[in-house]
Amino acid sequence: CLFLEKVRKHFGSKPIIITSGSRPEPINSQVGGAKNSEHTYNAPSKGAIDFYIEGVSIWEVQKWCDKEWKYSLGYGAPKGFTHIGIREERPRVRWDY
Questions:
Q1: Distance CA 79, CA 12 (A)
Q2: CA distance 21 to 1
Q3: What pLDDT, in 10s, does the model give residues 54-87?
Q4: What is the average per-residue pLDDT within 10-29?
Q5: Whether the Cβ atoms of residue 84 and residue 66 lie closer than 8 Å to each other
Q6: Three-state secondary structure along 32-78?
Q7: Alpha-carbon distance values, 30 to 2, 15, 87 (Å)
Q8: Is residue 9 predicted with pLDDT exceeding 80?
């Protein structure tokens, strides 16, 4: 949440729209989520959020997060979101959707 507030402020304090947060099994499977998805983690310092900022280029948000976020980032701009996640044992992981 602290990082999302940093993102929001950087992009003019526009609303952040969260498209996915915590999702337990079997919901993760039902929506086509990856096995062992960060979205299924339910512990401090673990988890994930997919989001976009209303009125801001998702490509710009993704690019900025890539520089500023030290944990996992999924390049979801082609699908309309940026994925940020935390797995302390796997910092700075990047992938395309």
A1: 23
A2: 11
A3: 999 999 999 999 999 999 999 999 999 999 999 7
A4: 94
A5: no
A6: CCCCCCHHHCCECCEEEEEEEECCCCHHHHHHHHHHHCCCEEEECHH
A7: 29, 28, 23
A8: yes
Burial 52-70 (b: 16+ CB within 10 A, else e): bbeebebeebbebbeeebe
User: Which of 41, 97, 93 has its CA nearest to residue 71?
Assistant: 93
d(CA 26, CA 11): 35
Q: Is the dihedral of CA 24, 26, 31, 34 positive or negative?
A: positive
For residues 14 and 39, give the distance between their C-alpha atoms in angstroms, rounded to a whole number: 24
- Neighbouring residues of 91: CB distance < 8 A, sequence distance ≥ 6: 70, 71, 72
94-96 and 72-75 beta bridge pairing: parallel
When comparing pLDDT for 74 and 90, which is higher? 74
